[in-house]
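Subject: for your reference before the review

Hello V.,

The reviewers asked for a structural picture of the protein, and I figured it would be easier to keep everything in one thread rather than splitting it across files. Below is the amino acid sequence we used in the manuscript, unchanged from the supplementary table.
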Amino acid sequence: MDWLWATRDDDFDEYPAVGRITSLPGLLTTLPELYSGYIAVGPNESRRLFYVYVRSEGDPSSDPLILWTNGGPGCSGLQGLLMEMGPLRVSSDGSLVRNRHAWTAFANMIFLEQPAGTGFSYIDEAEVGRA
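And here is what came back from the structure prediction:
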C-alpha cells in the first residue's frame, strides 16, 4: 500500500481513491475528506499500524501536516479523531456531528493507532510473542 505523503494538491491527486472513506454510520453532517489504511512496520513488516488521514479543510497544499498519536501505550488514535481535535465528534446519542474546534480547519492530520496491537493496529499471528 502506498503511504499518503501528499503535501501538495497535485501530488495528492495521484491517490484519489486509496482508502477513501465515503460514508460513516450515524453521520449527521457532511463528511470531511478522510482516508484510512495500514502502514507495515517492524521486522519483516509484520506489524500493521492503522491510520486515518484527514485532509485540511483550509488550504491542504500549504497547511501543515500533523501526526497525532494519543498517549499510552495502548490508547487508540481514534480517541483524538472522534473526541478531541478531529473534524467529527460522537454525540451523546451515538451520532457523528461536526467539531467546530477541529484542528483540521487549518491542518492536514494523521491519526495513528500505535503501538501494534492497539485499536485496529495488529501484529501478524506468526510474530505474536516475539520480542
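For the response letter, the relevant points are probably these. The helical segments are 9-12, 78-84. Confidence is low (pLDDT under 50) at residues 1-12.

Happy to draft the paragraph if you're swamped.

O.
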